[in-house]
Amino acid sequence: EIKECDWSSDVCSSDLMANLIQALPVENLGQCSLITDPLTKVLHRESLDKVCHRLLEEAKFLNQSVAFLFIDLDGFKSVNDTWGHESGDLVLKVTADRMSRLIRSKDYCFRMGGDEFLLVMSDIKDKMHCCLVARRLISSISAPVALSEGANAQIGASIGIAAYPEDGVELDALIQKADEAMYKAKRLGKNNYQLH
């Protein structure tokens, strides 16, 4: 039986929430039933609200920043068109694994759908740290992926970055701003990153 953690209870006062934040580090979210994407094994977008609202509450309480990196894979459609969906699935799995290896244990990777991912980084010092992570992500994602047919697929990544509280305090607005920055990266030639 799956046990759900209820972070949105109306009976939680701000004092009680502050006590919960102190008593339960974000790392303990792993003990709750978080939904993972069956293909890539990273978190599914259905877990996004549960994790991110918790991270934002903790960041507010501890006066920290949280970064949102919206990632869209460049050239992924041509992988599916050229080698088929099985190869496309392999590229998604390898890419998700590469991203997961580049982030800290207190950060989270979500598959938003299709070839879009969201990295949420807690307790960041400044946006320059996010830029460093974005450069590493692009370099790792751009490395060739060996396919079963003996061919190599190569994709890239456009990344948009937004940060709490600098770019907003509401989850939906922060994701939207990271998404807007990602589209700016695409317009500027793809395989790069942009800050909101």
Write the layout of secondary structure elements.
Blueprint: H1 14-23, E1 43-44, H2 48-62, E2 65-74, H3 76-83, H4 85-102, E3 108-113, E4 116-124, H5 127-141, E5 145-146, E6 152-153, E7 156-164, H6 171-187, E8 193-195
Parallel strand pairs: 1-3, 7-8
Antiparallel strand pairs: 2-4, 2-7, 3-4, 5-6
What does this 3D model show about the protein?
The protein is an alpha/beta fold. Helix content is about 40%, strand content about 20%. The chain has helices at about 15-25, 50-60, 75-85, 85-100, 125-140, 170-185; strands at about 45, 65-75, 110-115, 115-125, 145, 150-155, 155-165, 195. The protein has a 6-stranded mixed sheet, with helices on both faces. A hairpin with a 5-residue loop joins strand 5 (about 145) and strand 6. Helix 4 runs antiparallel to helix 5 (about 125-140).
Give a quick summary of the entry.
The chain has six helices and eight strands, in the order H-E-H-E-H-H-E-E-H-E-E-E-H-E. Strand 3 and strand 4 form a beta hairpin.
